[in-house]
Write a structure and sequence with these properties.
Belongs to the type-B carboxylesterase/lipase family. The chain is an alpha/beta fold. It has 18 helices and 13 strands.
Amino acid sequence: MKTAIVETVFGKARGYEEKGVQIWKGIPYAKPPIGPLRFRPPELPEPWAGVKDCTQFGPIAWQPPVELMDFLGNPAENMDEDCLNLNIWTPGADGERRPVMVWIHGGAFANGAGSAPSYDGSAFAKNGDVVVVTINYRLGALGFLYLGEMGGEKYEASGNCGILDQIAALKWVKENIAAFGGDPDCVTIFGESAGAMSVAALLSSPAASGLFHKAILESGAANFTATPERAAKNTRRILETLGLEKKDVAKLAEVPAKNLAEAVNSLPFMSLLPVTDGIVLPEHPERALENAAKDIPVLIGTNKDEYRLFTVFDPVWKRQDPKEMQDVFQKTFAKYWDALSAKITDPSAFTQELYDRIMTYFVFTGPALKLADTRAQTGEKVWMYQFDWESPVYNGTLKACHALEIPFVWHTLEQPGTENLTGNAPGRHALADRMHQAWIAFAQNGDPNCSLLPEWPPYNTRQRPAMIFGQDCRVEKDPHQAERALWGGLGE
């Protein structure tokens, strides 16, 4: 294995070369956020002497076990509070100035890792002559527990430690990526699910201004944030779970990181979110993006059947009990039940199919359209896509579910475990070629058009064109028109 040594601002790092790609793993981009730095903004890493071995992935953020994440191939070992590290794939640390792509992983802000096999950057480096960076950032209570109300000024940004970690990683990239053959003035941030929501937060945060130049949001937009009031309520629940009172906020510093990670399970799914704290996020990203992130092209899209991933293994839908299924609708849409039940008058219509369609629109498609509309109306360049390719596994029940597009974008279909999600149908490689090259083109030029696809016009609010990625790729005008008309006002 050929080694590769690069001098960073903080010391020399040893990587290795594999099949023409140079790789570094586990490079620290910030000081370990432990002890007095828990719940605090990240600080610059300490310089080191000698040559640091960066040939193994670093620790990942503490996170509770989640079966769905295991199914998606998320690594669940080597967890540590000292997790602020990144990984680099480059065609060569040779002084060239290549486009840089920085990936922010998903996982509901509570799970995930930059070292997942699907995020192997070798194909991007080889096929696109780009430098790829994947990062770990603080998750769950360690990354998004808002202590500003109880802990005062010292902890005013604690609800956004995970976002501040991402910003610290981008600052590291700006200062160091040239040594790895990357161009610090041509950085694309991209992410999926909570990673895409993080991209929206970064687009709207003044603290991230100037650190990136293009943005890709896969299956996530700008709608998921918490107000300080809601975030403080979550904090009180976590304290209660840990047997602490409001006055004991200082004792959180002594709670084992594993216990803090697992305490998140006492909250409803995806409760700990970036906080509109007036500092890191001065206002809600959906509003901020009416004026922020000027001249940053955006590529945004969703999968046709996003929510199927979250219902496919749920026994409620297998039992097919009409009363039970209607109860799920009523509980999920409690606030909007009157409006929803007025649209659905036939009790037999309360099916998994309908539930998935509404939730896909409500959680993913609608917010993505809203962000695209905002960008287009302010004269910014934005392109939209929809991923329609359906997985054949589990007799096709997964459909075009959440996270399915990732190995196509990354061209990591051959990574171990990926066939569990995609199956091994022969046509999938041609689609991976197309998506992969579109993302490369966007990183290079701020425009996803490439020779493998039909012409892909920028999004506008008149025709709403979107590239449909399926067995055949084509542009459709306003593919969400029917859903928008039916469900568009549901959450307003």
